[in-house]
Amino acid sequence: MANNRKHMAKKIKPWRDYGTKLKAMSSSITPNTVENREPMTTANITLDAKGRRLVLRDQDRERCFAALWLRERAPDTETLDAQTGQRLIEAAQLPLDLTIEEAKIDGEMLRLRFSDAHRTLFPLATLRKADEVSKSDTPDDLILWDAGLATLPEADFEAALESDERLLAMLEHLRRYGFVRVRAVPNDEDGMQALIDRIGPLRRTNWGGIADVKSVPQAYDLTMTQRGLEPHTDNPYRDPIPGYIWLHCLTNAAEGGDSTLVDGFMAARRLREESPEHFECLTQLATEFLYTDDTTHLESEGPLIELDSLGQLRRVRFSNRTERVPAHDPEVLERYYAARQRFYELITSDELTVHLKLDPGEMLIMDNYRLFHGRTAFQLEGGIRHMRQGYVDRDSTASRRRVLQTQLGENA
Description:
The chain has 9 helices and 24 strands. It is of the alpha+beta class. The radius of gyration is 26 Å and the shape is globular. It starts with 43 loop residues before the first strand and ends with a helix.
């Protein structure tokens, strides 16, 4: 199991209400002056000659902040609504020549007065995190894995249903590994619904809410046949693409039909390491995806490997059944086809693939932005293979996890 332990992209936490603390403001220092009244911190500050920049030196680091950025992010009740934390001022109307006129470190707080006469108070802990950016392709607490994954991340259905702590543990597994196997799910057609309701609304599609995945005559999709399915992500032709796939096993007595899982982030990292030009091609050239039937026409586009603004892996796509590459210049397509072929070789390799056969009452929750999933072909002579599948979006899932972290942290 590969474990990425580098640097993590830090996000600024929501501002707290420090409005009452502003009443305690007293004297301050003039520009280009450094003062540390409290010995508890090693931080010191300087301003440039015009007061347009503030430099914070602390913990062997130097951080530079624009005066306008500090003003619009001021964590006080004149700037932010105390109830919602949302901004009250119109940041776009702040004067572009705004400056810091006075600044002072007081213990672990930074006091500021701006040229518009506004005063505010920043926790140094907040500013220490504000400019940290990633130096890695993924956050450092994600666990990237391959076929050597010895222990699958697991959760118990009833425990996650009844306990906030166990639900949070399940969602953390899902975030870090990109999937989690849930045991003891009620063995009925809507057995997963109660746990979905604990997290967020079920995403409805043209197939309804929770839908069957089994072999049927006149199949409207290759998923509804007995053939094996190559590693893929679901529904890249939708906008937005469903965030998490919930796959619940009711019956799995057919011969074959094993599930396959591949960590798409691990595959993308391998591609970047061994063939940077292929990696770059798949991040820059968008391809199209199309799904049609008698009542539906869906299309979207995006690269097979998508990066965020920090250069970190954001999502992967792969869907041989629905990809429709535009007619680019032949030289461009030659590069794309070679890159796509190498990526395919990686995501279908034994080295990166985990195999498992779901039993009745088991369920996989899979990150559709990170995981490639598939299955082996199956024969019905041994019995029926009947799965139920639903989607839950990323925003509601991430929101539930963050709220639980906050609530449980406060209770502790």
